[in-house]
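Researcher: Please predict.
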Amino acid sequence: MSAVDAPALDAREQALFNLRAAPALLAIITLALGLIYLAVIPPWGGPDEPRHYEYARLLYDKGRLVSWSDADKKIMAEIVRSMDAVGYWKWGVSEWKPDGQSPLPDDFAKIYPQNAHQLHQPPLAYLAYLIPLELTRASSITAQLYAMRLLSILLNVAVVLAAYVAGRELFRNDPTMALALPVFVMLLPQHLFLHSTIMNDHLVEAALAWMFVILVRVFRLGLSLPRSVGLLLCVAIGLGAKRSGLYALPILGVAFLTYAFTHWGGARLSTAQKSIRLALTVIMLALGAMGLLFAWNWVSVNQPQFHDYIVRLFLFLPTEQFPFESYARVLSPAALPLYASYFKYLFISTWGHFGWMNITLGVQAYWAFAALTVFAFAGLAWFAFKTLPQWEAWRRAVLFVFGASILVALGAIIALEVRYWDLGWGGDPQGRYLFPVLIPLATLFLLGLRGFVPRVRYLVWFGALTIALALYNVIVLALVIMPFYRA
């Protein structure tokens, strides 16, 4: 691999790169913005927030792992009374509506009949929420909710700091892009909104964000035991938090193959060295596969309930309870409008579709974001043609893995939505399902957005990006979110 001469940096760009207080500033601003959104969003205003709180509360009260059979009507009634006190029925999603005579429901099945609980989810994120719950155990349910939201904001800080480190690693001679990456992640309104509510998605995103940081370091510095352990730890945390943690497995597979091609296929190694490394790689992969197969067989024999949970609920594979029979319909041309609608909902709910997916920006705003995205795609193509060939091989490899990561996430999201559609449950893909790969997504988007900008205007571009995102937050809060809840 041959290095490329770094472009000359002016004094202002160099000051950006040498700003030692940048991580602290990013953390403080992220925390402050999260608190603003937390204050604006009423209790239970986040998607599925009553059910997420219920899960953590059941873990706390029972003192053990729980399932759907542990649902407690007393806890549900307490949550519903709090929902009623803040006027939830005016702006929240609910099948039950007050009529002035009927008593409040004491069962979530009356409010959310299709999916009354989140108790099928992996427990790790909810176990983390036990910390603020314990600290506010003597407080009101609303105080407990806000304390738990604070943990969500801190997880957002972890994601923003991961974006900062990833930017510094990947763009070592490009201060504006290195800082634009965490700024974009920090100021994306949809991201801020969700991270100011209770949700198990946040722990998955934080885990995979730091996984991408480690991957960038692996491509730059090489694979080592500490980095391998770090990757495995991030994957374990992601899998323990939500099904979307499964993104990590194919992403790591692509990353490993790309790393082997980039680092082990160069001219630096002799033919004998390449053969030895290839043989060792094949042996290690075979041993790993055999170990996984042995562990799976052991679980199926000794832990049949856990095995059933993995197959039926976590992996959501076709079973007698949840079959899949519409292969021909899924592949037919008649299904194309369905897939188009999935991408449409993913797009608008990444840029801004707040609340319970019921606070919209308006058609004109989404068309503007569509035009911006098309411009970014064109800029990315121009960057790939003009600039990318001059990059070091390891940096090109990272961008390849980032692109593959986005495709992995999209494929998994569409596959899950097709499963729901086949079962007659409807489809509701949301932009938050892409947030575990937000760092790759933001990296490629920003490279495209800057693709046509001349080198001497990079700092101006960074300033315009920051101001535009800040204004977008002000507009969203003042003209969209606050009026919706106050109406």
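Model: Residues 1-6 have pLDDT under 50 and may be disordered.
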